[in-house]
Amino acid sequence: QVQLVESGGGLVQPGGSLKLSCAASGFTLDDYAVGWIRQAPGKEREGGSCISSSDGSTMYAESVKGRFTIFRDNAKNTVYLQMNSPKPEDTAVYYCKAQGAVGSSLRRYWGQGTQVTVSS
CA-CA distance, 3 to 120, in Å (whole number)? Predict the structure, then answer.
C-alpha cells in the first residue's frame, strides 16, 4: 500500500525546535522530490521547503530560510523537516508531498498532515 505518513507535530515554544517526519511505504521516497507544505487557519497552502530526487538539492521559502532544514534518510525511507527557532506565524498543519515520474506518468502522494503550534 502506497502511503505517506507525517509525524512529530505538536506544541513548541518560540525559539525552540521540532523535527517532523514524513515516512513512505509502498514506494522508494528517494525516487521522488519531496516538499513540506503548510496551511495555517484561514489561509491557503504555502510551500516552504523541498528536496530534489536527483542531487538532493534543497529550496526554501524566504519565510523559513535559515531556520528550517529538509533532509533525507534513505535507509528509513523518510524525509525530515528540522524546525529551529520557530515563530508563532509558523503555526499550521504541515503536509508532505512526494512527486515523481514513473515511466510516462507523473505521480503525487500526500500525507494526512501534522499540526504544529508555536506558542509560549
Answer: 34
Write the DSSP assignment of 57-110 as a string of letters: -EEE-TTTTTTEEEEEEGGGTEEEEEEES--GGG-EEEEEEEEEEETTEEEEEE
pLDDT tens digit string along 2-31?
999 999 999 999 999 999 999 999 999 999
pLDDT of residue 54: 81
Residue 95 CB neighbour total at 10 angstroms: 19
Query: In b/e form, how buried is each residue of 65-83, taking b as 16+ CB within 10 angstroms?
Result: eeebbbebeeeebbbbbeb
Question: Which distant-in-sequence residues (6+ apart) come within 8 Å of 39 by Cβ?
Answer: 45, 46, 92, 93, 95, 113
